Structure formats: C-alpha cells, structure tokens
Amino acid sequence: MSTPFPAPCRAGTARRDGVRALAALAVGVLALAGCAPGPQVTAAAPPPLAALPEPLPAARRFAPRPAPPPARSNAEIAQDVIELAFRLESGRRLARLTRFEGPVTVGLAGAVPPLAAADLADLLGRLRAEAGIEVTAARPGQPAAITVEFLPRRRMQAAVPQAACYVVPAVSSFEEFLAVRGTDRIDWARLERRERAAVFIPSDATPQDVRDCLHEEVAQALGPLNDLYRLPDSIFNDDNFHAVLTGFDMLVLRLIYAPELASGMGEAEVAARLPALLARENPAGAGGRPLPAGLAETPRAWSDAIEAALGARSTTSDRGTAARAAVQIAQSRGWQDSRAGFSYFALGRISTARDTELALASFLQAAAIFRRLPGAAPHVAHAEMQLAAHALAVGQHERALALANANLRAAAEAQNAGLLATLMMIKAAALEALGRQAEARAARLDSLGWARYGFGSDEAVRARLAEIDALAGLRSRQAGG
Length: 481
What we know:
Blueprint: E1 14-16, H1 30-34, H2 74-86, E2 104-110, H3 116-131, E3 135-137, E4 146-151, H4 153-159, E5 163-169, H5 174-180, E6 197-202, H6 207-222, H7 247-256, H8 267-281, H9 293-296, H10 300-310, H11 316-333, H12 338-351, H13 356-371, H14 377-393, H15 397-413, H16 417-433, H17 437-455, H18 458-471
Parallel strand pairs: 2-3, 2-4, 4-6
Antiparallel strand pairs: 1-5, 5-6
Helix pairs in contact: 2-8, 3-6, 10-11, 11-12, 12-13, 13-14, 14-15, 14-16, 15-16, 16-17, 16-18
C-alpha cells in the first residue's frame, strides 16, 4: 500500500522543492502496525460517485489571526534566538546582528499571482500587530526595502536549482541578482545592516506555496537566516510542518526589532540583553534552562541523512537506508524532540510502498513523539492523515473517519489548506463507503475551495480526489454536472 501524499522540505533562505509533509495518530491504531490488514469493506458494485460542480469553486483563503504564544521557557528561546540570528544554515557564524533600521516597505513585482497581494497584506498586518515591526506595502512605483518578485519556476531555478523560493540581500530584482551572483555584495555575513532584499517566488506555484514562501522568506529578509530542526513550533525549521509564522516566530522577530537591539551588535551583547527582553515580551516563559549543548546540536550526519531520505534524486533503497540512519542517530543521541519525530516520519514515508508494517509503526512512533511537544499539533495531523489513508485503503472506514475528524481543527488552525482538504476528502470517502451519501457529498464539496488553494489547478484537485477515491475502492467520478 502506498499513500501518494508527499511532505514539504524547505531550506532556510533557499526553500527546496521536495517531498511535502503530512503526518500522525493515537494508540487505537496500534493494531494496524502489528497484524495483517483488515478485510476490504466495499460494496460489490458501488454506485457512481456524485458529479463535481463545473467549474470547481474558487480558492478559499484563511482569515488572518494571531498565533498563540510559545509554550517553551525563555531560557530555551534565548538559545534559539542566538542560533537563528547568528548562524547560517551552513553553520557559518555571523559576526553581527543585522536588521532593517526604521520603517520597512514591501513591494510586489513580476507576474503577481491573483491571491498574492491579499496574502501579503495579511502577513504585513500580522507582522505589525504581533512582531511590532513598522512594515507596510510599498505604493505602486515606490522603491521597496523588500521586493517580492514572481517569475517562472524554470527561470528561477536556473539560478538556484531545486529552490522553491529564496531571499537575497542587497538587491531589488532578479536581473540585479544575476549580475552580482557569486560576489561579496550578496554575502549575508558581510552586511553591516539590512537596507534592501529581494524574495523570488515562482509565479506558477500554488496559492498555498506562494503564501508559505511569503511568510518564510519575508520573515528571513527581516530577521533569522538559519533554520533549526529541533524547533517544534516554528516556520524556521526545514521539516516544513508549519506553513505560516507561529507565535514563536513572531516573538523572535519582536526581539530582533526591540529598541534595545541594533544592527552591528555582537552575539555576546545580544545574548546579555535577551533575558530582560524575554521577561518583558514573554513573561509566561519565566524559569527553565537552555538545552544542554549535546541535545541542542544537530550533527551534520543527521541532516545529510534526512536530506537524502527526502530527496527526489536518490533511489528508494538509498532513501530507506538514509531514513534508517536518521532514526539511529536520533536514538543514539537520546532525542525526544521534533528531530526524533521527523526521523520516524521520514522512515514512514519512505516505507509506505514496500513495508506497510514498518510505515505504520514509524508513523505511530512519530505521532507519539510529536504529541508531547508544544506547538506540534500540525505534525500530529500530518502523521494521522497518513494513518487515515491506510485505514481507508484496508476498509477500516470508521477508523479513517475518526482520524480525519480528529485532525481537521489542527489543519485549519495551522492554515494548511492542502492538509485540510486532504483530510476532508478522506472523511468524504469514508462516509461514502459507509453509505452516508449526503454527509459525504457535503464534506467533499466543502473540501474543494481549500483544495483549490492548496493544490492549485482543477486538474490537481481532481487528481487528489481520484487518489483518495481509489484508496477507498470507490468508482471513478464523472466530471461535470
């Protein structure tokens, strides 16, 4: 059994195309991990599925809402802030803090997708309200501090292969970037302060991918340049479970733009001021200790294993070997954080087509780890979606329905339209198989607007519906009507 639902893998300043993350469940599914699948429960001759509306509904968007504050200690958060602000993903140290000083404007350029301006407006509103940054949309024709340029994916990736979107300092256009590529001018480590930056996003990406790129790359243009796999509650994490800026992310940006800090400050000076800043900005985080160095560090061998496990260029066998290596490193290090959960999640994804029992056991283990972590509800929802898909495929329709229902809220609160639509489609297919036709049709119709946002085209939406209906053993749907 193979569930064709991939998982996202981005990297800091160069978000990579890759497997797209979806993830995890509870003890009731343990039976699936250790025994043969239950009987397939389908009618001998199921009726044709109800036709979909033509055209499909327009894409639905999430209303902006503030994220809950982080639920970790200030001592741990201070450690995270230093690593996010004074390290690059390569491990290279930055000598000084850099940020924009004064008001920041953000402008759109190129072939701007239809929903991008509204999504940017929502993001800027949140940055003002939650991070306290004086950031506004640039007026038409006005030079912007941060320029978001949209261009075809093929052209963008000709400059930075496999990058889904990325941010470059000290330039304002793609042509300018090409002219200075490979020079010290766009070396983050050589900046004294931030004055200009450009974000490049594919104009042919899905609305959700555009929105996700806006959140991560604009945030990194403003602040952190690093990603940390150990963070369960942040978009600054290459596991890509979080799609929009979290409460932790907004706190990090609020700290970086606090009046007590300024461009040019060194790591020690910033570290000395963080405890007082955190006591003021996050009083609920008082107490606690930073992570021991051995737990905080992520060895290169683990990152390489994860990248190989989720990379499209490796063979399935090599990816499985890499995923097992990641699990072994996590176990040897005694991790019980998001890195351990992601190791098992990756192993589950790689194993779905070849070893169902291992895949289910891995998703269950990932879910158990994620469930104990603050801010990891989206991680759990991704894993439980995989388990729900399996339950659907083996005829356990009540279980598939329960799993889908249990995670709809988490997917909506994480503003992940692709995950939300997939869970709704699984719910609809389970209801259909159980003979609850009216409920199934309502759930399926409700999924379509979110699917248009998450997957983009009508063709992609129909393909996802077909995958899920096929898992449930339902007959092909007639288009139109």
